[in-house]
Amino acid sequence: MKLYHSQTSPYVRKVMVLLHETNQLQDVDLETVAGTPLSPAAPLEGKNPLTKVPALERPDGPTLFDSRVICAFFDARAEAGFYPEGARRWDVLTLEALADGILDAALLMTYEARLRPEDKQWDEWVEAQWVKIERACAALNQRWMAHLSGSLDMGQIAVACALGYLDLRHDARGWRGGNDALAAWFAAFSERPSMVATRPPS
């Protein structure tokens, strides 16, 4: 199998952390690609019509894309239970969706600053994205700490990768303010070997 990959993509990082945690890294060849919404990665054309990473090329089926689909595939393949059955499953899926929502907003902020001409940048729109992130971090800190501190699942991995991306691209915004429990959890979770091995370059 071939995973189309970028070291700085937080969505790719989710998949990579899962591969480390389930001992499947050796089963995947990594192909590093680079692109932006304005200049998509050429190797992805014909693989993922959205030309986004991650994308997983398989010998026995169509290419899988979107990090949630790929993570679910590898979890099922390893029978790892990171998407558990029963009531907890819905909590895991909700946490992963919340984490991906943080990433969506943070990436829009990044693209606004990097890709849009300075005279066309919209400060109010950027701030609206950050408000979403602030609300999400507050919800994690107030509602989800018992779950985050429990047995390892995909919700925890997704949240950790989202917070790591905030540190990478928007550290000056200070997401930790008022979120002491979440910050302490993230500091400890970040020391897992899978997180250390997948830290993006500064």
Automatic annotation (TrEMBL):
Keyword Lipid metabolism recorded: no
PROSITE patterns, sorted: GST_NTER
InterPro entries: Glutathione-S-Trfase_C_sf, Glutathione_S-Trfase_N, GST_Omega/HSP26, Thioredoxin-like_sf
GO CC list: cytoplasm
CDD domains per UniProt: GST_C_6 (cd03205), GST_N_3 (cd03049)
GO MF annotation, one: transferase activity
Protein keywords: Transferase
GST N-terminal domain segment(s): 1-82
Domain of life: Bacteria
PANTHER family assigned to the protein according to its UniProt record, in alphabetical order: GLUTATHIONE S-TRANSFERASE OMEGA, PTHR43968
Name used for this protein in its record: Glutathione S-transferase
The organism of origin for this protein: Ruegeria profundi
